[in-house]
Design a protein that fits this description.
Layout: H1 3-20, E1 53-58, E2 67-69, E3 72-79, E4 82-89, E5 95-102, E6 121-122, E7 127-131, E8 135-139, E9 145-150, E10 167-169, E11 172-177, E12 184-189, E13 195-200, E14 212-216, E15 219-226, E16 229-234, E17 240-245, E18 256-258, E19 261-266, H2 282-289, E20 307-309, E21 320-321, H3 322-329, H4 333-336, H5 340-354, E22 362-366, E23 372-373, E24 379-383, E25 394-396, E26 399-404, E27 408-413, E28 419-424, E29 436-438, E30 441-445, E31 450-455, E32 461-467, E33 477-479, E34 482-486, E35 490-495
The structure holds calcium ion (2 copies).
One calcium ion binds near residues 290, 292, 296, 298 and 301.
Length: about 500
């Protein structure tokens, strides 16, 4: 190569690359590799709106999290039929650009979910946004649209709404598509959105989880949890290679891949197994509840405040009352009430539902590899207690941290799964946001807007608690010395 050409290349690299590749420390849902661990950030260990709140910017509703794209954050939102992408300047919180795509139909979702649940992803060149009510769209740094790929509107189980975020691997952009029996992983070329492969997963459809990218014997793989199993596919062609069974039916949290091990948490519909209570035995309650003493339990004789499921969210969303469950499982209750035999039948059906596979939490640690069902050969440990409903785990310095609703933090040994501690952090409410770690400190946020910082390690130590006054469902993001929280209607930046 001539010296002239070399110097041209040098100039190209030095002067052009900074303008076409935007660095990102937090490029996708839960940051680097989706693990929730900041590589080098030192954000404040206590949030204070008077001293270290750098800025606060109003944004539309959304449960997705911001990502970093150079000097900006990218965030998705939903406002009626408008599906929004924001680019927000990290320095001052001003909005650099905002793009809206108006759809005819917005996906149906549970009242604890939202129409903008998917966190964008960037390769440093473009940003890729998935709106479940629209499809995929790619923008450059200035917000110029590069391509769009409309997709049929999703049909999630029981209309609970989407949860999965897109991931990038090489030239592939991959998203889980919930379409009932047509549910599949879709891999498109990130350069133009053209389809590369589709991995059908009709038997694995119940999921709100983000896929995980991992390596196994030099092969690049993608894993997806749902409907009681975790399935590993080849990234090359989407071929199903191996799977682990025995997980919960309906999976919200996302697996992480740390130090060569996959950690997969699945809790089912109600969270921790202590969140469900089977209906009481007839003999225990009939004397007290049968107020007219006719030996029949009428619906209005069942106390209205008794819960069979308590997800411990701050507004009681998603809880079942005994009255509702009793009439759900025994239809003639409203007409002539319960006899002892009818109550026994209802009790058994309710118990099977409440304590069955739909609600049975399971967390596993899995060594990747093998072929077919590897449940008996590659599972390092399997635990069924003290597992959260929505938040994903953080694995940090050989410990697994899980925050569950009610404000209970569980710390396990990552090698054995044994609990090191299980403690109330004294910040109750629902936990939807996944925890993150920076500089050895764990950040958790509740639907009451309370942020708690816990020192990692074998000793349980809460460092600080702060109130943001608005519900938080999105997972925090960390860039250098700033931590970002999305609440019900704002994005907050706290900085050292
Ligand atoms: Ca009665
Ligand atoms: Ca009856």
């Amino acid at each position: 190569m001539s010296p002239k050409r070399l110097s041209f290349l040098f100039l190209f690299c030095v002067f052009l690359l900074p303008f076409c590749s935007q660095a990102s420390e937090w490029s996708q849902f839960r940051g680097p590799d989706g693990s929730g661990v900041a590589v080098s950030g030192h954000p404040p260990i206590s949030l204070n709106v008077d001293s270290n709140l750098k800025w606060k910017t109003a944004v539309s509703k959304g449960h997705s999290s911001p990502i970093q794209f150079g000097e900006r954050l990218i965030l998705s939102g939903s406002d009626g039929k408008d599906q929004i992408t924001y680019a927000i300047n990290i320095e001052d919180g001003s909005i650099a650009w905002e793009n809206r795509i108006t759809v005819e139909e917005v996906e149906k979702h549970h009242n604890t979910n939202n129409a903008a649940p998917s966190t964008p992803v960037t390769d440093g060149n473009w940003v890729y946004v998935y709106h479940p009510s629209f499809g995929l769209v790619a923008y450059d740094y200035e917000g110029a649209e590069q391509w769009r790929k409309p997709l049929p509107i999703v049909k999630t189980p029981r209309n609970q709404g989407s949860g999965s975020s897109p991931v990038l691997a090489g030239d592939l952009l991959i998203i889980d598509r919930q379409l009932g029996k047509d549910t599949h992983l879709l891999a498109v070329n990130k350069k133009d959105g053209s389809e590369v492969w589709k991995a059908p997963r009709p038997l694995n459809a119940w999921s709100f989880s983000t896929p995980v990218i991992f390596e196994e014997d030099g092969n690049s793989m993608i894993g997806m949890a749902g409907s009681g199993s975790f399935i590993a596919y080849s990234l090359f062609d989407g071929e199903q290679r191996w799977w682990v069974t025995g997980l919960a039916t309906q999976i919200c949290s996302s697996p992480v891949f740390v130090n060569g091990i996959l950690y997969i948490s699945s809790s089912g519909a109600q969270g921790d197994d202590t969140n469900t209570t089977s209906p009481p035995d007839w003999d225990e309650i009939i004397g007290e509840w049968d107020t007219n003493k006719d030996g029949i339990l009428a619906i209005e004789e069942i106390p209205n405040d008794i819960l069979v499921t308590d997800r411990k969210t701050s507004d009681g969303a998603g809880n079942f009352r005994l009255r509702g469950m009793a009439s759900f499982f025994y239809k003639d209750l409203a007409e002539d009430g319960y006899t002892k035999a009818e109550w026994a039948e209802m009790r058994e059906k309710s118990h099977n539902f409440l304590k069955g596979s739909l609600n049975r939490p399971v967390m596993v640690a899995v060594r990747p590899g093998g072929k077919g069902d590897v449940s008996d050969t590659h599972v390092l440990w399997r635990e069924s207690k003290r597992i959260p409903e929505i938040p994903s785990p953080v694995v940090y310095e050989n410990r697994v941290y899980n925050i569950r609703s009610g404000g209970i933090l569980n710390c396990r040994n990552a090698e054995t799964g044994e609990t090191i501690y299980d403690k109330h952090i004294d910040a109750p409410g629902g936990y939807f946001a996944s925890p993150v770690v920076a500089n050895g400190n764990l950040y958790v946020a509740s639907d009451r807007g309370e942020v708690s910082v816990i020192r990692t390690g074998d000793e349980f130590e809460v460092i600080s608690k702060s109130e943001l006054s608005e519900s938080i469902a999105a997972s925090p993001a960390i860039v250098a010395n700033t931590i970002f929280f999305r609440s019900a209607s704002n994005l907050w930046a706290f900085s050292n």
